[in-house]
Amino acid sequence: MIDLLHPGLLVVFAGVALALLRGPVRAAVALAAPLAALWIVLAAPAGPAWSGSWLGLDMRPLAYDALSRLFAVIFALMAFGGALFALNQKSRLELPAAFVYAGSAIGAVLAGDLVTLFVFWELMAVGSTLVLWSAGASAYRASMRYLAIHLLGGVLLFAGIAGHVAETGSTEFARMALDSPSHWLILAGFLVNAGAPPLSAWLPDAYPEASWSGMVFLSAFTTKTAVCVLLRGFPGTELLVWVGLFMVFYGIVYALLENDMRRILAYSIVNQVGFMVTGIGIGTEMALNGAAAHAFTHIIYKALLLMSAGSVLYATGKRKCTDLGGLFRTMPLTTVCGTIGALAISSFPLTSGFVSKSMISQAAGDEHLLWVWLALAAATAGVFLHAGIKFPWFVFFQKDSGLRPPEPPLNMRLAMLFFAALCIGLGVFYQPLYALLPFGTQYVPYTGAHVVVQLELLLFSGLAFFVMLPMLRRTLTITLDTDWVYRRMAPALVAAAEAGWRRAVHAIGRSRGSVLHRLDSAVQGLHGPQALFARTWSSGGMALWVALMLALYLLLGYL
Amino acid sequence: MSEHWLVRPSTIRLLWRVFIAVLALTVAAEFFVAHHPHFDVESLPAFGAWYGFLACAGMIVFAKGLALFLKRRDTYYDDAGDGRDD
After folding, report:
1. Could you tell me if residue B80 is inside a domain?
2. Would you list the DSSP string of A132-164?
3. Are the Cβ atoms of A456 and B52 closer than 8 angstroms?
4. Nearest-CA distance from A235 to chain B in Å?
5. CA-nearest residue of chain B to A329?
6. Would you call B63 and A463 a contact, using CB atoms and an 8 Å cutoff?
7. Are residues B65 and B46 in the same domain?
């Protein structure tokens, strides 16, 4: 019976219903639908729930295993927390769009075949773009760049899937080796959504343009769906270790230079997904468990951080660190919740980040990957630097900006408290999370040496922050990224080419009697705007000609 | 409006002292836990402390170096992308 229900589609349809509902009924549906999806995901038995055939392809649109269940659980929880936080969002488009987005993300991780995966993958791009659009005109240009990148990723993925199906005759989504162009294309499509280089700039470009509640949703689904499919499709692919480590340090360095509080957190998403991608590249059971667990905990603490940033944006309308500071006076709850999120992302002992990220480092140690292990340790310190201290310090403390904003409304406070409780709860009682992981594990995160070394790493990186604070003073600047290529260089090249072309045409027009001019006149005579081959024809004339040709065809048929 | 107790210079001095004491405690705690290192470098005294500090200092310096080339005013992209550098 429960097999018949699709938790992802349930959330998608709830989103469509939300567009029509108002008042308490709308709030009730918004909170109940993700919980219903969560219940279905937890209650459904393992194995393919839906299967069939479509256009001669074997389809398993809904399949449960440990990996898909883990991601579906956290996506449903995230949709619930995000909906609670966004209940007072005035935009009538955002929450429905966010539910289509969240539901299709659940559908994508529960997809047992590549075709279904692709359909939900594209629906996610549509849903997330609508979330950006609902933020208004200021987000429009960024949303179009976002959409262009994701459609490109979708094209890569589709080409790869088509090639894979043609080569193997199977649509099953299982582990792949990088042995054919189509598998490289699938990997590229996945990595675009993960925020991997060279296109990672789409993430800090677009997400911070969403509304105060919109970015909470955006932070969770696209990149973590990519992590889930990488876990299923490309575990143990060594390339991913290096891609992941690049993302880790890219995120830290760019976040250190950033002034916009939500762009700091956007770079930090790339950084955190980098840890997961590195774990997937290492590929042992410990590493894959670590990547999956880190995706789970990261969704919660990053949403919490963005809720606190969203509350600040909601209350002050400001987003730059240079305009903020000293908000702890009138927003104590937001400060505490944001700080708990900051401690969790830094993987402080007793927070959720500690029990998940440790497994990735442990796996690097177990495999004797010294340089990877050293890089991960340095990055752990760097996370505390760029997100753990920098975000709360510049937003809630540092100088007194003179702003005295009130705490946000009750629903937003409750959402923050819920996620803050999860951050601490999972850090202390980690067994339920470990029980959900893809592989059984006996890992114990809390050993004396591990806790002490972690505290040394983090606290001394805190010392580095305060000692070097003058070097971290915020300025009204951005840091150029690869999006410069398509935001500045490409338009400049097109403009230059256009100008060159116009000059050439002009020069030909002036050189009467030359060969080029005569050639040009000949071409214009046949193909110019009003010439025989290019001028527009009336519909009536076209219909007459078509009728005549069909008549001729009929006649020839009888001859 | 009186100054919040948290931003008084006396509080900040106290916080620094507590912070330094905690730093010293974490290093001292190393002698009271059982170690099972994967790598030789882990066995160096106070590895987490100096490695964490140096790694962060290195990343900050690298970021400032990168900023020399890639930093722009935050209005850089605001004019409609006409290809001119500002």
Report:
1. no
2. HHTT-GGGHHHHHHHHHHHHHHHHHHHHHHHHH
3. yes
4. 23
5. B4
6. no
7. yes
